[in-house]
Design goal:
The complex is a heterodimer of chains A (about 220) and B (about 120). Chain A is an all-alpha fold and about 220 residues long. Chain A folds into two domains: about 50 residues; about 170 residues, no CATH class. In chain A, about 65% of the residues lie in helices and about 0% in strands. Chain A has ten helices and no strands. In chain A, helix 4 runs antiparallel to helix 8 and helix 4 crosses helix 10. Helices cover about 40% and strands about 30% of the residues of chain B. A five-stranded antiparallel sheet of chain B has the order 1-2-3-4-5. Classes of the chains: A mainly alpha (about 220), B alpha+beta (about 120). The interface between A and B is medium-sized, with 29 and 34 residues.
Chain lengths: ~220, ~120
Amino acid sequence: MRRFLTLNALGLGFGALFLLTLCAQAVAGWQSFNDEQVAAQVGTIGLLDYVTSTDFAVAVAENWQSEFLQFLVYLVATIWLLQQGSPESKQLDKAGLESDEDQMVGAYADADSPAWARAGGWRRAIYGTSLALVMGAIFLASWLVQSVAGWAAYDEQRLQDHRDPVDWTSYVASADFWERTLQNWQSEFLAVGAMAVLSIYLRQRGSSQSKPLGAAHAATGIEG
Amino acid sequence: MLALAGCAGDSGRDRAVSDVVTQFYGALEAGDGPGACRLLAPAARDALERDAQAPCPEALLDEDLPPGSAARDTAVYGTAAQVRTATDTVFLGRFDGGWRVTAAGCTGAGDDAPYDCTVEGG
């Protein structure tokens, strides 16, 4: 058990952090929602009602979609875009999809390589982009959920304001939908860009996301 | 997905909302001011009494509300709802005691503005 925990500490640790913060968000969001309901002189709701509400769903989904988009864009952009001195970048002569030898596929696969990396044709093609496909699918699903839940939450507010509700197509063209979307996208792109650039000059001893302390600022594609 | 939107497929909830509107107008037509006032949201009741300087049952029966008719269209999103009848547009909110009328006697103000309502609050 101890060995299992040690070998999976990163995944388990972030899984636990996710659940804790999701629960905390639910409680804080519930209090905030009811505070707005009181201000609007309408009825408050219980915690269970809140966690099954569209208000909670849109608050969760709008962050999920942007996080998965961030990783998707980063994953794909770092195939071609380089950053001298950054541990987030590949080495400067490696831009592009790289050779079969570099990628250890087909005849260059070794005994421990995944079966679909040893295979050719469609299986290698799919496996070669499987991480981006899954990240992209989760991004699109989360964004769709955001649009539907956000639409319902938006119409709830419109009815409270004694205005007519709008349909989904009007909502996805609305300022509310794009403000929710873009406020998350810009923060994700800022954080990723800052990490790529700051990690040229700054270090975190022992972290896989940093160069070793003694590595030159110009050294590219080296992680600790 | 539509269930997530909270906007379709829940006929029980739609019926609960339209039933309140039917009961509200039924009470008004029967001259049952207290019964109609019990179906008003607290803020709507307070605003009515404040504006009319009279108790809710008396003030509500004095208001020039349109005659009641069957619900033609019901929209429910979370804790808010709208019911259109042939003669009126009514807004409701969900409270601990059930759905209550937050605005009645409403006519569209145009340009996506809030409705003008004879009775409203909350």
